[in-house]
Amino acid sequence: MPIALRILVVEDQPLLLLDLADQLIEFGHHVVTAGTARTAARLIDGNIDALVTDIELGDGPDGLALARLAAKARPGLPIVVVSGGVRPTHAQLPSGAVFLPKPYRVADIQAALASRQAARAA
């Protein structure tokens, strides 16, 4: 059974945010949600085990900036970046981050987080 993680999920579309949070909870994770990168940046601390963020977050910093901030503040933090419109290059992602295009399967997010968590533990 996968280890339960405390995952920060960042998505500016409320229905998508709630849906993803609910599905991750079904996988046994604890979920903290944010609708903006600014709010999420205040939540990246020692209590978060992973980050899942959309790239396009409306006004303010985007999810790529948030992912880079999180990677700098918390080296080794498992990060999954998703988007339906933006396809980042490898160089735009922080080292070790995984990109999944929308529509994604939550099982793919779960697998990416588990793989990053295992790499972090090794």
Topology:
Layout: E1 6-10, H1 14-26, E2 30-34, H2 37-43, E3 50-54, H3 63-73, E4 79-83, E5 98-101, H4 106-121
Parallel strand pairs: 1-2, 1-3, 3-4, 4-5
Helix pairs in contact: 2-3
Helix content: 25-40%
Give me the secondary-structure category.
alpha/beta
Runs in which pLDDT lies below 50 for 5 or more consecutive residues are none
Number of domains: 1
Number of helices: 4
Domain Response regulatory: 6-117
Modified residues (4-aspartylphosphate): 54
Protein name: CheY-like chemotaxis protein
Pfam families: Response_reg
Key words describing this protein structure:
4 helices; 5 strands; alpha/beta; 39% helix; single chain; five-stranded parallel sheet; globular; Rossmann fold; 20% strand; 122 residues
What does this structure look like?
InterPro entries: CheY-like_superfamily (IPR011006), Sig_transdc_resp-reg_receiver (IPR001789). This is CheY-like chemotaxis protein. Pfam families: Response_reg (PF00072). Residues 6-117 form the Response regulatory domain. Keywords: Phosphoprotein. With 122 residues, this protein is α/β, with parallel strands linked by helices. The protein has a single domain, classed as Rossmann fold (3-Layer(aba) Sandwich), CATH 3.40.50. The protein is 39% helix and 20% strand. It contains four helices and five strands, in the order E-H-E-H-E-H-E-E-H. It has helices at residues 14-26, 37-43, 63-73, 106-121, and strands at 6-10, 30-34, 50-54, 79-83, 98-101. A five-stranded parallel sheet has the order 2-1-3-4-5, sandwiched between helices. Helix 2 (37-43) packs parallel to helix 3. The longest helix is centred in the C-terminal third of the chain and has 16 residues, at 106-121. The chain is globular.
